[in-house]
Amino acid sequence: MSPLPPRGPSNGRSPLRIVPLGGLGEIGMNCMALEQGDDVVLVDCGVTFPTTDLGIDTYHPRFDYVVGHKDRVRAVVLTHGHEDHIGGLPYLLAHLDEDVPVYGPAHALELVKHRLAEHGYGDDEVELIPVAPRKTYEAGSFSFEPIRVTHSIVDAVALAFRTSAGIVVHTGDFKLDPTPPDGELTDEARLAELGDEGVSLLLSDSTNVDSPGRSTSELSVGQTLEEIVTRAKTRVIIGMFASNVQRLAMLAKVAMATRRRLCLLGRSVQAHVRAAEICGRLKFPSDLLVPPEHLGSMPRDRVLIIASGTQAERMSALVRLAAGTHPLLRLDPGDVVVLSSRIIPGNDRPVFEMMGDLLRMGIDLKTWLTDRGVHASGHAHREEQTRMIELCRPRSFVPVHGTLHHLMRHAALAREVGVSDVLVAENGEVVELPRGQGDKLAKAARVTVGKVATYGGDELPDEVIRERAQLGRSGVVMVSLVLDRRGAVAAPPRIVQRGVVDQEEGASEVMRAAAIAVSRAVADTDGRTRTSDEGVTEVVRLAARRVIEAKTGRRPIVMVALSRI
């Protein structure tokens, strides 16, 4: 055991502040700053995914606070390798001038390397420092100790920070699984030792606060999946979160036990397997895997396929299989598809559409909704959340990782367990940790927060997203106008539209009326305005939109292409 060393308030009497930039008041995009004196340490930097199709890959947190304090950022510390905890890291590092070290479990850092390479970072361009449980690390005036926790990904940790206001424990995502397949249980003994020493603040995962009892063990999921595969007389496809390496390892054993070959379908699952193999967390026999290109020629009862896309992500393997458009495999009636996952809130509609497509194909579909044994959450249920509070016995408590509903429910649970100083905060609300025993948590300030959309590794300005949303709501009209050297209309304006009005609704008549209004508006404009491209463009835009709105009730984006002869 390597306990946290004593550390006094080296930064004078400055208070400790907790600055949530993401993950409080929402599911995903987890990112939190700890600030004391001249030092700032960030815990995680994740992304969230869009619920509408506006050409967005992910959202990451706004980094205004970080940019304003970038000369004080001493480190980024990661709890584990899920995208909602590491996916925003390349964007964060691009906003920092100085080299900031990134600490994290080895598996998480291997996934980070893959993300950084996608963004053009070289192998040694970012300092990645692997951490081990029960070891102590320094980051400015902070020291921290990783503590092993069980989650739906290997190599996950909680973090215990030694701060000027005492010990702060951040649970990360956790559960108290008594039988994890890799044998790495949550280190309850170390958490209890910290509780004995005195935990000033506990920041704890709220995701499953509405789920009573305890979460299902991952080992029991493996047993359920083995039963399904053993009974199947045809092809079996398991849809799952690619990051769940323990489930991948169990499915490899299931394939061998049922004399099937294993196939990985989807870039995500292939990338996670490579990362786990590099870290020594996964090892497949050399003759177990079969390339996706060989699926079409294999007997249906001799293959077990692991596919990504359980949330019906566009162009994912499962979506293309359900649509019958996958280039390497077509499903047949009677094939077994198991969605070994739960639906993330917001993805309900596309997932149910994908399920409907599979059922229409005659697929034997098994899901968490019909068979709870096919999936286990990686997040603690209420009984486990209670146990975490009892182990740490914190003086103060702030719930993290959840919507406001989840945070308030978790706060109520903490009060029921006996914690008197409980505070609910959302993104941007700065929490100040009290020094004295009689003081309480307080909201000290508010910082700018929000979401930044990205596509293909590039950040998209808010104005672009607003325009895309307006295009989807109202469509676009393009006015092509030619003026002579005096500023008079030289030819009838040409107007085309997309997404505004259907041809059967009289699109030609509406556009003809708009063209007449444009010509009249230009003719009625004074000579000075006609000589200004900007002036004429605005007159034309307004004239066209007024007519279209009057006739259709819609206010489309109107673009003007102006030429002069």
Automatic annotation (TrEMBL):
- Extract the GO molecular function terms from the UniProt entry: exonuclease activity; metal ion binding; RNA binding
What CDD domains does the entry give? RNaseJ_MBL-fold (cd07714)
One Pfam family from the record: RMMBL
Q: InterPro entries of this UniProt entry?
A: Metallo-B-lactamas, RibonucZ/Hydroxyglut_hydro, RMMBL, RNase_J, RNase_J_2, RNase_J_b_CASP, RNase_J_C
Keywords of the record: Cytoplasm, Exonuclease, Hydrolase, Metal-binding, Nuclease, RNA-binding, Zinc
Q: Which residues form the Metallo-beta-lactamase domain?
A: 28-223
User: According to the lineage, what is the superkingdom?
Assistant: Bacteria
| PANTHER family per the UniProt record, alphabetical | RIBONUCLEASE J
Q: Which NCBIfam families match?
A: MG423 (TIGR00649)
Q: Mind telling me what this protein is named?
A: Ribonuclease J
Source organism of the structure: Polyangium jinanense
Q: From which lineage does this chain's organism come? A: Bacteria, Pseudomonadati, Myxococcota, Polyangia, Polyangiales
